[in-house]
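hi support,

uploading two proteins for the ticket. first:
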Amino acid sequence: MAEISLTLIQTFYQVARHGSFSGAARELNLSYQSAANHVRRLEQILKGKLIDSEQGAKRISLTPRGRALYNLLHPELDIMLERLTKLIESQRSSLRVGMPQAIFFYLFPRVLSRFREVFPEMEFAVSERDTVLAELVKNGSLDICISERYFGDPVVPQRLLGSYRLSLVYPRSWGEPPAQSDIPFWADGKPFITYEPGQTLRNLSVDFLSRDGRSIQPAISTSGSSSVKRCVEEGLGFSIIPSWCVGAEEETITTMKLTSLPEVRVYFGSASFLQKHPTVQQLFEDCRRELVGPILDPPRGEGYTIAPL
């Protein structure tokens, strides 16, 4: 089979997306005839008809094979082209990674130290986000995401790194900790400090504290665990944060690991076409070596088998 060029694939993709040769021609800055010729050439290479169009008709329709090819390309082609554009614009190798602020602040420096031993010249660009990570990978803004959410999206395959527990933290001056089963009752009337709306750990905490029909209203909301913990240290209220945010010798706060709450899982995801890229594989292995064991509990049990990289 003759080698298929990216130009032919891109032209077909835009024709299918716009539903016309003219729309694709405008998008790609081609002539109408060039767009049509590209599609005809691709059909010759693939030995099959991809598009049905009548003479003079403004709209085209996809054949079953054309529809199958378009579905195969969408949205992967957009992501690949976006990444190529950014690489060419920057003229420097980079890896764009998104993750919650707490994971980067508390856990990732040791991972980066190992990663940069292998790729010292690569720029590591971090977006500290909890929400919309899957969409940022799908639209080409990120290459990798470390998330406490499982997306279930084949375009952003994920692999489970491990899990961790949450801890109740509150000012030491408040006295002895309550029994875990009494925490929702204990929390009544106390100022609750947590994360911004939509963040995974806020949702888990609110669900736990709202058991038995109770209502919990945050007094302070902020973007990351370092800010939440700082507010607790200043005596402004209590919170529920990752256990690895709290040191063994805390002078101003009391902490209690919450074994009654489900473990929080941490997933490693990437754009599917980057799964075998050396930098992606290296970062996954570095995350596993540095985090699983000392910080995260290893994956175990049914339901932990996530699409492998």
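and the second one:
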Amino acid sequence: MPRRIVLGFRRWWPYYVMLAPGLIFFVVWHYFPIWQAKMAFEQVRIIPPNIWVGLKHFQTLFTSPVFYQVLANTLIISTLKILFVFPVPILVALLLNEIRGGRFRKFVQSAIYLPHFLSWVVIAGIFISILSPSDGAVNQITGFFGAKPIGYMTDGNASRWVLVFSEIWRSAGWDSLLYLAAIIGIDQQLYDAAEIDGANRWQKVLHVTIPGMVPTIATLFILNMGMFLSADLNQVINFINDVNRGQIDILDTYVYRIGLRTGEYSLATAAGLFKAVIGMVMILAAHFVSKRLTGKGVW
């Protein structure tokens, strides 16, 4: 081993130790499965070797009406989240940046960060309880004004919006940290120059703060597009039931169902590979569009 590498390891070994858990996680759960993606082209056997079948599983996938239904649900839910969830942390960061009181700002930050640390099991229980048509808080409030009770978790279209609002409640505060970090990194001299030019607080936000956040916004948007077909398995699997399944059953729950429940590993791998390829294409497309429009991209 070259002496330079040995000396470098001796100097930086504490940092390598801190990186080790994350690296092991990505190797085991993200890089090792790449090799097993070949199962999408094989017929899995209990006793190896597997039988090569080519595109048979993809043909089965693309001729299945269930696949197109879950694909449509995934596209609808992911589009709703991009349109209504993605901008909220940006607005939260801008609002937090305008709060001048130190104690009040810390209280607000702690309050909006807390939901991120709750599991989807807990969050789903909270939302299902408050949206109950019989004794839920939401229907009791609307009923006070004469409205009829609504079964939000049994109404397919309403269930999609429950996913959107629960995602906002859970992630808006935590995701705003990245945008707050971008705001802190903006050169204070730009604000001083804007003030000298007579800019008010709104004009500073519009012409200094938001442009300074554009690289971060562009990068996170591109990464979100890569996860466009991943409408959050952990969330959906806790909200789904037999009534709303037709509207919120997504690709990830479909893969989970046919892979782990019915044992069709090759078909599930084919569906997962399809999602991964589409995600890569969308990352590349979003990167090049962002480059053309803002001059910023992932690389």
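thanks. also noticed: The longest helix spans residues 3-36.
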